Amino acid sequence: MAILQSPLTLIASIPPVTRYFTLATIVFSSFYGWLAWNGTYSTPYLTLIPGASLFYPWTFVTSALVELSFWELIITLITIPPSLRYLERLWGSIETLKFIAVCVGFSNVIAFGFNWIEYMATSSEVFLYGMPYHGQMSLQIAVLVAFTQLIPEHQVQVMGFIKTRVKTLPMAYLTLSTVMCIVGFQCPWIIIQFGWFVSWVYLRFYKKNTHDVVGGMDTYGDRSETFSLTSWFPPFTHPVLKPSGDFVYKLANRLHLIPTGGDLENGYAPVPGSARAEAERRRAMALKALDQRLANSSSPSASQSTNPSQVQASPAVSSSNSPVPNHTPQKSVVEAEEGDIGKANTSGR
């Protein structure tokens, strides 16, 4: 009974959106595999086929649940459920579901329009019926963008031996997508390009920050400089990209396509849960400083313990060299940081 209870307990601990989205991916992909096994490869009701999707509009979202090969399904199950589980515990189920629907749906809409433009330019029907968009590549790049916003400096290991920071992963995946498109594999690799841009726009301007409330108002987006569009590109490109980005931003703002405002008073917060994260960072720094001070005070204490008569004979000197008073500033550092953490956690809630 204990053997059967452990998997059930593990499944029950997974947040609902992550659990049901993963289950739906397995079911839809298995159904497509069964159809392919029986010789049915054209499935416009499952995958996004630009020439037929207007008759099956649900595929603009549900096509993400279909992986065409076993290896694609394995990669998706390794990467997406743990990522969604992390985001859902931080954002909540509703915001996570909205994030999935927006990133997948709008990426597929852009791919649909892009293929129709290619068809009108070339008159080649391969762009309408030969490119079934599917899978969760757009969602994979979207969660990488979200992690870049939340934990950009976190160190990860890729394939067990390549160490890198989280903020470098989206552009590495985007570069791979570009190379695959150039060599002729537009479908489904180009969806990564669209997923990156859609997810950045959504997180930058539209996502509701569930844990950050300013003046009783909900906050939206993250308009910090570290999450700007130019921050994704090398510094030498900034003089060219920044003026054009500012122009597009002002135009979109004038047309009310994005929420107005550029500070906390106008309804956005730098990073969801940033107060809590900052408190943890300050706590870690305080503990590190405490350890260093304890290490530095160990040597004087050892030398003073060997000369107790000198300490008694010269109380003025002992008061300046004794390690006992040094505990007071160490304690005050921790108490100050604990106070900052308490305030930050109160504001984060």
From TrEMBL:
Q: Which Gene3D superfamilies match?
A: Rhomboid-like (1.20.1540.10)
Q: Where in the cell is it found?
A: Membrane
Pfam families found in the cross-reference section: DUF1751
Which residues are in coiled coils?
Answer: none
UniProt record, GO biological process: retrograde vesicle-mediated transport, Golgi to endoplasmic reticulum
Coarse class of the protein's main subcellular location: membrane
Keyword Membrane attributed: yes
Segments carrying the region annotation (Disordered) are 293-349
Task: Print the keywords alphabetically.
Answer: Membrane, Transmembrane, Transmembrane helix
Cellular component GO terms held in the UniProt record: Golgi apparatus; membrane
**Protein's recorded name:** DUF1751-domain-containing protein
Q: Which organism is it from?
A: Dendrothele bispora (strain CBS 962.96)
Q: What is the lineage of its organism?
A: Eukaryota, Fungi, Dikarya, Basidiomycota, Agaricomycotina
